[in-house]
Amino acid sequence: MKKVPLILAITTFFAIGTLTSFNVLDTFVAEHASGSVNTDDYDFSFTQTSSNKTYINYTTGTRTIDNKDVTYYLVEVHLKQISDLRTQLATNSSGEYGANITQAFSDIVEEAEEDSGTEVLAAISGDYAFWSGRAGYVIRNGVSYRSSTRTTDGEDFAIFKDGSILSYDEADVDFSSLEEMNNGCYQNWCFGPTLLDNGTIAVEEDEEIDGRSKSDNQRTALGYVGTNHFYFLTTEVSGGRNSKSSSSFSLYDLAKFFQELGCTYAYNLDGGGSVSMYVDGEYPIEASRKLGDIIYVVNA
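Below the sequence we write its predicted structure tokens.
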């Protein structure tokens, strides 16, 4: 893959406001300490700036949860145009996509570069929309792939061709209406839940995805600040997954973090063994399993 070097520099490109204490319940218990961002402990970061092209800022850091430092990887995305934020579905050797068709994260990134004809600046794992053929609205790069509605409660996140966004309950929006809104739907993800809704935390302190998803889990999430301004976030686990001594971002922790970054909306994506990030030719965190899709950024 062709790689264009980026100007590297140590930076702390965002400010975190004063934090308030909160409690979070997880599988093993208890009282969580208030989260905080350690802005003096960045491992590596760089900043790009431009007034006439899509660019990204990248940093790693730690957030104290349960008195442990949990590592996160954060990409701030400034788009020149909404079409520079793209998605790529996994395909098989025949070029087919669909239920249980997966690829390694790095292979999907490479195919995204080949298909787009330009360098991928950053990428994260997506929502694994076709896992086991489950239902839920799927629109990628303006193309409609699935219109079946989830039978259980499901919160979706949509980006439209005019740059606007919508966080909504899938059962409340007809698919044909979604396709036509705001000059047409550009991307729609069906994982969730919504973490921030118009600046307000949209999850409870003890909320989790389902009975199988514990708060000691790696996370992938997408934050929205305003028109053409997004964040990609992936997180690790301190102490090892499924350990009683582990610590990680709960859904509430994710929501609080995005709120402190100044996001107005944030959305949870597929986590656990799917969590992956690519930035500047490197893979700071990569999935332990094959994936169904990615979200990526180019400067087209």
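Helices lie at 105-116, 175-180, 251-260.
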